[in-house]
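Re: your question about Ethanolamine permease

S., sorry for the slow reply, the queue was backed up all week. Below is exactly what I fed in.
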Amino acid sequence: MSEPSSVQYTKVDQSYFEKRGLRRYAGVWSLWALGVGAVISGHFSGWNFGLANGWGSMLVAGIIIAVMYLGLTFSIAEMSPALPHTGAAYSFARTAMGPWGGFLTGLSENVEYVLTPAVIVFFIGSYMGGIFGTPAEAQPLWWIGFYILFVGLNVIGVELSFRITLVVTLLALGCLVVFWISALPHIDFNRWALNIGAGPDGAPVELAEGGGSWFPFGWKGVLATLPFAVWLFLAIEQLPLAAEESVDPKRDMPKGIILGMLTLIVSAFMIMWLNPAVAGIGSFKLATSGEPLLDGFKAIYGEGTAKLLAGVAVLGLVASFHTIIFAKGRQIYSLARAGYFPPGLSITHGTRKTPHVAMVFGSIVALGVMFALWFGLGADHGGKVIGATLLNMAVFGAMFSYFMQALSFIVLRRKLPNIHRPYRSPFGIFGAALTMIIAVVTLFYQIKDPAYSTAVMWVAIWFVVGILYFAVRGRHRLILSPEEEFALEHKLKAGA
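Result:
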């Protein structure tokens, strides 16, 4: 097997892979929990900022983004069992578009999976500080504590990781179901959900009696809301990273992905409908809230139970934090095992068979970025930057990787039409193309946000550092990992 002279492979013996083994455990429901758990924090907070453009804008944006994710997840459901490797997005793009395509896709996903847990742990720290009354200056201690706890739980073993994932995901979903049931007797949709209008200066204003337009800012409002609707589904695409830890990825991976996506669609539209409609809250207030679900619980049950309810609300954050740490470890592991990142990052625990080096390294990088912002800019300003810049960096990485994964799907359909596909997407190339279009439009409206320019700069730096490493060293020391062997073998078969 050979590859163009732009890359070279280093020979390794069997001991290399013996130090990088994984253990199979996950079935359909473990995979379902991994996908839902990664996303569920977005149903607790984040999506609600889109309400500033009107409830109808949030609804339509949610539908558009749901279509994008359906196209993406059905494409992934086809590619993952056909290419059942831990590399996932990198693996798909590597087979479809060569080493550079695989690396750029993997690098964009790396931005998402390293920084998303950092954003989540920042919000966890804020909640915990409120519950226990710790000073703002102590926030970094919460970050360190939660990273140590959940990286440790992920290192102990894949069995424990998936068990915890299932438990916290069910608890988080249970919390949402309790809210839905509790909210139903307290909603007045016309009065509260439709209480946003367009002011003379074009800014949203509160309508005291409600009854406003579904689309106070027209189609521009819908398009501007797309980036916020992403939080209702962001990270469901991480599921294929567990391919080599799935008992039967060719059978279970499509089921887990599709069941997870359907669960999230139901949950997303229930929270969008009920949370803004609860009496005493409304879309206008929720549009600037850092904890919309908690505000909903307070409106229903009163302020007296605030700390208890805040503890409940942390469940959703913990579920996503735990599961994305799992994904981060596998994502770094797969790129390092193939030589795109330093191979030492792919070593797994001798007895636990978990990618502990990758998880620890990724967490240190994330904490380093958080500390730089927190201490470099001051606690107050640093907190705002963490909440905006890192969040937007993660979404940028996600949108780019979605585009590349959908493109990989189209290329693989045309380039390798006869490859064994245990599952075929019912939406086919049309669904993948629609995903690409919506991802580009969403990215455009993210870039229009002034707060996003800083995020773009930092993502550019991340890419420059990664590309320089790969160009100077990585591409000359690639290793025939399962992803690389598969890509080279099918390149020859395709006669490319």
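The first strand starts at residue 196 and ends at 198. The chain has 17 helices and two strands.

Happy to talk it through on Thursday.
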